[in-house]
Design goal:
By secondary structure, the protein is of the alpha+beta class. It has three helices and five strands. The longest helix is centred in the middle third of the chain and has 18 residues.
């Protein structure tokens, strides 16, 4: 059904970013709640609270996937100095991008969503359903790992 997308973000001029925020997330599952709270505060600051439900669901899925699948089993699940997962929110005039960076080089894998009552395995299916696009790309240089992103198109105000 869903093939993982190995591509970069659609062409976006980084200089045109009107707002950006990011937060480091520790390797513990409580970080999903922290990511939702960060997203709520950020969207409220950007006067985008009406998009919170969809964006928050996608952020929750991306962060959960990073914690569950992208961290080695040896990663301590306690607070640490250098959190391995980072959430980025970037807003352009007509687009919002949620990006989660993690240390793994493995591509995200979208599972078949045959069992809709299952408690796991539907994360990327939900991301695909609620976002206008998603993908991932490996990071180069000293960062390493990858970024999994989801894009939301924003409605532009109608000129009167």
């Amino acid at each position: 059904m869903l093939e993982p997308l190995r591509q970069g973000l659609p062409p976006l001029d980084p200089a045109a970013v009107s707002s950006a925020a990011s937060c480091a997330l520790p390797a513990r599952y409580e970080a999903v709640r922290e990511a939702r709270q960060f997203t709520r505060r950020t969207l409220d600051q950007w006067d985008m609270g009406d998009r919170f439900d969809d964006v928050c669901l996608v952020v929750s899925e991306l962060v959960t996937n990073a914690l569950r699948h992208a961290l080695p089993a040896s990663t301590p699940r306690t607070p640490e100095q250098n959190p391995p997962v980072r959430l980025h929110l970037m807003r352009w005039t007509e687009r919002l991008v949620c990006a989660v960076r993690d240390p793994s080089h493995d591509s995200p894998i979208a599972c078949e969503a045959d069992d809709f009552s299952a408690e796991s395995g539907r994360g990327l299916f939900l991301v695909d359903s609620f976002a206008d696009g998603w993908g991932w790309h490996p990071l180069a240089g000293t960062l390493g790992g990858k970024v999994v992103w989801a894009l939301f198109r924003l409605q532009t105000p109608i000129a009167e």
